[in-house]
Amino acid sequence: MTVHAYLQITMTIAPANREAAAKVYTAYRNPFLTTIPGASTKDLLIRDDDVQVLHGFESVAQAQAYLNSDLFTKHVFAELQPLWQGQPDVRIYTVA
């Protein structure tokens, strides 16, 4: 699969909660890659200021659809939300 769109979710998470966030990432990485239409990559990026999850998709429409999927809304979002310090920054990019 070729990546034509990226979904970037940037979250401010306290250092003490980053291990818990990494566990959520690890638990749902494979289900994301195997059950979400158009999903091709998922990477966890940890910086001093925040944590990002970068998702690769075949299309922008598939990236947008993932945000409304049961996997995201009922599992990933629900488990990560208590770890956030403020609202996450969610962006979708088209690969040029």
Topology:
Elements: E1 5-11, H1 18-35, E2 39-46, E3 51-57, H2 60-66, H3 70-80, E4 89-94
Antiparallel strand pairs: 1-3, 1-4, 2-3
Task: Explain what the structure shows.
- This is ABM domain-containing protein.
- With 96 residues, the protein is α+β, with helices and mostly antiparallel strands.
- It has helices at residues 18-35, 60-66, 70-80, and strands at residues 5-11, 39-46, 51-57, 89-94.
- The protein has one domain: Alpha-Beta Plaits (2-Layer Sandwich), CATH 3.30.70.100.
- It contains three helices and four strands, in the order βαββααβ.
- Strands 2-3-1-4 form a four-stranded antiparallel β-sheet.
- A hairpin with a 4-residue loop joins strand 2 and strand 3.
- Helix 1 (18-35) packs antiparallel against helix 3 (70-80).
- It is globular, with a radius of gyration of 13 Å.
- The mean pLDDT is 96.
Q: What does the largest sheet look like?
A: 4 strands, antiparallel
Shape: globular
What is the CA–CA distance across the termini?
16 Å
Q: What is the oligomeric state here?
A: single chain
CATH third-tier fold name: Alpha-Beta Plaits
- Enumerate how many helices there are, as a single number: 3
Q: Mean pLDDT across all residues, rounded?
A: 96
Protein name: ABM domain-containing protein
List keywords for this structure.
3 helices, 4 strands, four-stranded antiparallel sheet, 38% helix
Overview in brief:
This protein is of the alpha+beta class. It has helices at about 20-35, 60-65, 70-80, and strands at about 5-10, 40-45, 50-55, 90-95. This is ABM domain-containing protein.
